[in-house]
Amino acid sequence: MLLVSHSMQQVLELCDEAIWLDKGVIRMRGEAFLVVKAYEEYLHGPLNKIELQVSSDQQILLPDLQAIEKTFSIQNGAHGNNPQRRSIDEIFNLQLQEPQFCPHIETAEFPHVAPPYELKFIAPGGVSRWDANEGLKICGFTVVTEQGETNKLGVMRPAKFIINVMAEFGGDYECRYGIVFFDHMGSCVGRIVSPADKFAISKNCMHHVEMVLNPNQFGPGEYILSVSVHKFGPMELFNSTARYDLINRGFQIQVETPDSLAALSTNFFHTAEWNFHPNKALEK
After folding, report:
1. Which domain holds residue 38?
2. By the 8 A CB rule, do 80 and 72 touch?
3. Number of independent structural domains in the chain
């Protein structure tokens, strides 16, 4: 079958090999993923490589890494400011799905890993940067699990993604960060966007950000990740908000299922509440 398409998702889903034609001339031919990655980089404009040099006296600005615990208070018979909000006891008394889990209730614990000064777990084809505004650039990326620094994640186990950015210019910034998960066929299966991050930073200094899946609910398989840094704006305008950097389809992770969950293998483990209501006997 010969597929002619401008849809990169179609090409990745249906083709093992791809040919990139430009005005009738073959620009590239080879593995579909590598051709798609090069084509997307060409369309959106490559950036010059960042040469990261960290001197011994360089100031590194880091956010507070202490875990933030959510608390539930009961005031005047209501839970906090929202009368519909459940207390912790009510949450734990829910009849949840199997396997039972309630995201973010337990604190995820990881071995210490220093902020990365290089991009790790790079996907085939290398680093592909899209054109973007000057200001901040991604200079480090890694993944951490309970076993340490690794790109092999477990189903229903916590995982931490660390992004390190470097300031090309000093000043005050307000950013959003995005991580997009693609499956082996190139389909977007998850898009995680941060709230606002406000910070002041000096030129050539570092600022690092952590995103924790607690737990990881993606099912088994191989995933490709894109990572981006955007100027903060309304969520509904996220895709059109100016960006500082985007590494497209740049990182690779693998999710594995333990034997205990093999019978429940799925693309995504969703949370659910179960309620059982026996019928009353009919009255004569």
Report:
1. 1-44
2. yes
3. 2
